[in-house]
Design a protein that fits this description.
Elements lengths: L4 E2 L16 H10 L2 E5 L3 E5 L7 H15 L2 H4 L3 E7 L2 H5 L3 E5 L8 E7 L4 H19 L3 E3 L6 E4 L2 E4 L9 H32 L1
Parallel strand pairs: 3-4, 4-6
Antiparallel strand pairs: 1-2, 2-3, 5-6, 7-8, 8-9
Amino acid sequence: SYFFNFLVDIPSKPRYNMSIDSEWSLFEAILENRFIRYRLVMDVVFTKMPKHINLSKVLYAMEFYESKLIRKGIQKNLNVQVKFDPNLRIKHGRYAQCYWVYENRAPRDFIIEIDSGMSESKIIKILAHEMAHVKQYVNGDIYDYIKFPSKTRWKKTTIDKDSMDYWEYPWEIEAHGYEICLYEMFKEHMRKLNIRKRGDKQ
C-alpha cells in the first residue's frame, strides 16, 4: 500500500471543492490547479502538469527511481522540481534537462524540465534519465565549473565538452543506460503490482 502525504499551495480562490474524502480526490483537486507538491522521501514539486499524464503513475515512477538511485540517508534532504514546458525542445533543442540550484558542490536542490508534448510513457522513461543525473550530482560524480561552462569534471577527470559529441559524454552514457534499465524495471514492477491488485479483488 502507498501513503501519500501532500504539501499543497492552495490559491486564494480555488476552482474546486476542498471537502475531499481521500488522497485520490485530492489528486484531482490539485491537478485541476496544475500544481502539485508531493512528499516521497525527497520533496517533489510538479508545475504545469499536462492533462494527458496519469499523475499517480508519474508519482509511482518518481518513487521507484528514487529508491533505486538515491541513498536513503540523502533522500530526505533532496528537493526536486519537475517543470513541464510544451516548448522546451523548440527553445533549447532538447526534450529534457536537469540542473542544480543554489549549490553546485554535492547539491541537494534540482530542477528537471521536460517537454510536455511527449507521450506519458516517454515522459516517464525520460524521468529515469534525469533522475540518473540527480544521482550523479548528489554523489559528486559530476561537477560543473561555473567559470568554465565548457568544462565538466566527471569523477576525477576534467572533460572539455566542446571537444567531443554529446553521445560521448560519460555522464550521458551512464544516464542513458539507467534510462533504459530503470524504465524496463518500472514497467515490470507495475505489471506485478497490477497482477497483485487483480488477485486481491478475486
